[in-house]
Amino acid sequence: MNVLVVVVDALRTDRVGAYGGRPVTPTIDELAASGTRFERAYSTINATDPALTSLQTGRLPRTHGVVNHGSHVTDAEKRAIEGTPTLPVALEERGYDTGAFGRPLGRWHRRGFDRYPELSSAHWRLKSLEKSASSLLYGIHPAIGDTISRTYNALTGRTGSDDEDGVVKQFTDFLDDAEEFYSLVHLMDTHTPYDVDDDLVERYLEEYDYENRPLSEVASEFPTGSITANSLTPGGVVNQDNERWEDHDVGVGTALARAQYDAAATEADRTIDGLLEALETRELLEETLVVVLADHGESLGEHDIYFEHHGLYESTARIPLIVRPPGESAEQSDELVSITDVAPTVLDILDGHDNREESAFDTDGQSLRPLLEDEAGWESRDSLLLEEANTQRFRGVRTDRWKYLEAVDGDPTCRYCERPHGASEQLYDLEGDPEETDDLVDERPQKAAELRDELAASLSAHEARSETSDGSDGKGVEYDDEEEVLDRLESLGYR
Ligand SMILES: [Zn+2]
């Protein structure tokens, strides 16, 4: 059996039709119809480096070792992750052909992959140039910035989507050479800045009537090509003249950027369609376990967070997770599941074909197989531990009904936005208040105290594990590609 895992960076559940969201992802919806949709799936953390590491190791950030992202990753974290087993390494050792495609994160993420995307390409240098030049050029004249943007898109063979042909073609070439394979595809379409097809945005704009004013009417005032990471400021969206749309409440610019986000979700969905079609035409789909998920969600204005994944609110912490094993599987599951469950699931299902007992892969997750097969064997969780990366402002727990969040050092100020998104302790009843607008920490002190204890117990349990799982001997770890990776993350607007 083969395995294809597709990560759509920063994809929200409410932009996946199968989750009752906006109908912008027909391929994912179809996949969900023949697989299992996990209604209450969560990432471990709000940033890609540690979240993707949770996916590949089946562990929480504090037990795989990497809590931070990008340039914030410390030497101690690098040493810790070098000593942690990963899924691609385990599968490569079993003789699988392993290939990663899409956005390369390099460094430790590269371990275990026979094929890994090239980092030092003209593509990325151009992307960096575009990013650094665009704000300057938009300042001089928006048309110049737009021209640069379009030239970049033309030169890199894309019309807005994120290197769609490249990813599908690379995956297809890999399939033609592979026998049994494990493939990880990482799509960045729904991460800012959105490079999306203008026609698609225009179409989705129709559905975002803002105060009875069709957005398409204002699109000319606010060229879609000009919404870049620079337009998406902590206070909302600014136009090419640096005017903020505060007069319009969250602003028509924000709604326009939301339409771009939707278009980006469709573009990622089209890439997934290409991947599945490549499997189907080779008659491999029925021999492949397909997983589609996000590394974390995205806040599109909720809690005063614009087009970023700060905080541990549902918009960011909750992720879509669809697992389609070959053959029949349950329609959906409402259990609390985690990104850490994917690696043990893959190993459990693969080993089921010869010897299940071989699944000696030490994780914090649980195999989802009983839920997929609608059988006994799943142990329901009391809670999931959530953490915030880099900033490390908040930690929290999500239980069946509640979410409790606590500022690590008592200061709730967001390090990026320089203002708090909530109080230093927060309590939400997700059953009655799924949008987390009503903080009940003062009203329900007993519930808050109970969850404060639950969080403390969870942290100390995993802290103890973290100390024993660090297999490092204190040696320094240097990655050849580190500088390039960090440059590239910077060019994408990561900090
Ligand atoms: Zn923030």
Question: What does this entry look like structurally?
Answer:
With 495 residues, the protein is α/β, with parallel strands linked by helices. The protein has a single domain, classed as Alkaline Phosphatase, subunit A. The protein is built from 16 helices and 16 strands. Strand 8 and strand 9 (306-308) form a beta hairpin. Helix 8 packs parallel to helix 11. The two termini are 39 Å apart. The protein binds zinc ion. Residues 305, 310, 414, 416-417, 421 line the site of zinc ion.
**Cα gyration radius (Å):** 22 Å
What is the CATH top level name?
A: Alpha Beta
Overall 3D geometry?
globular
Number of strands: 16
Contiguous runs where pLDDT drops below 50 for at least 5 residues: 150-164, 246-250
**Share of helical residues:** 25-40%
CATH homologous superfamily placement: Alkaline Phosphatase, subunit A
Helices and strands, with pairings:
Blueprint: E1 2-8, H1 26-33, E2 36-42, H2 48-57, H3 61-64, H4 75-82, H5 87-93, E3 97-102, H6 122-140, H7 142-155, H8 164-177, E4 181-187, H9 198-205, H10 215-219, E5 232-233, E6 236-237, H11 252-281, E7 288-293, E8 299-300, E9 306-308, H12 314-317, E10 318-319, E11 321-324, E12 332-338, H13 342-351, H14 369-372, E13 383-387, E14 394-399, E15 402-407, E16 425-429, H15 445-469, H16 482-491
Parallel strand pairs: 1-4, 1-7, 2-12, 3-4
Antiparallel strand pairs: 2-10, 2-11, 5-6, 7-11, 8-9, 13-14, 14-15, 15-16
The chain binds zinc ion (ZN).
Zinc ion (ZN) binds next to loops.
